[in-house]
Amino acid sequence: MSVLNRINAKLDGMAPGDREIGQYIVDNPDQMLRLSTAALAAAIGRSQSSVVKFSQKLGYASYQELKLAVSEAKAQEWQVPAGVIHGSIEVGDSYQVILKKLVGSKLLSIQRTVGANTERIISRTLELLDGARRIHLVGVGASSLVARDFSYKLMKLGRNVLHDSDSHIQMANVSTLGPGDVLFALSYSGASIETLRIAELARKRGTMVIAVTGVHDNPLSRVADICLYTIADEERARSSSITARDAQLALTDLLFILLLQKQPDANEYVHNSEVAVSVLKAELSS
Prior knowledge:
286 residues; alpha/beta; Rossmann fold; five-stranded parallel sheet
């Protein structure tokens, strides 16, 4: 995960002084790269030592090391395509402006989400899913829709999958899990009480817990064995979990494709599924 994403994710939990420094860097990374510690401190009304300590709290030996990390993050940063706008959707925006802003938010969320998860973490997740006796998918609200979509995809590969939109049934299902099973829990906030309680019960039963959640510290991430991070821009999109849902779908689609590659007989399972559905469609249309 880039240093800019890490700072942004930690802002809410920072002390006021650190938050001012962090917010300035996130909002003005290019300017920050041209500023010395003294100049940055003057720009935000803080001391030079507070800037140095901020760098050290992030794991860098010096402010120069932090600047290098920011520079590398900027070099790898995805650029919004020409004609696409990334910004808050306002009441007075025209149809075309709303369309461009919405597309920009979706694209940026997906790109940041992919960048926030290392290949090592994705590979470890694949190992758990591939070797699982049963996979139980849970989520509420928009996350439940993503869980259902992923469950259908996993079923096409012949995986033993449990999913239900009713949280009471989800809790009953997880009570049957044990070692060798996997709980795949989706919650951007990481604070959905139903998903959290289900994850806690799964851990008690010796089940591995994979969480798909936001990069901020949250209760679900503390329960999980593995965290896959999603980065959403809900404040800018101003809609019900649109970008969070897109980020979750991007991750689950990636996992499905990688599992498809990994499983030798995957194409046969998918083909059988398509044939079964086509036969049903033919009967309904006749």
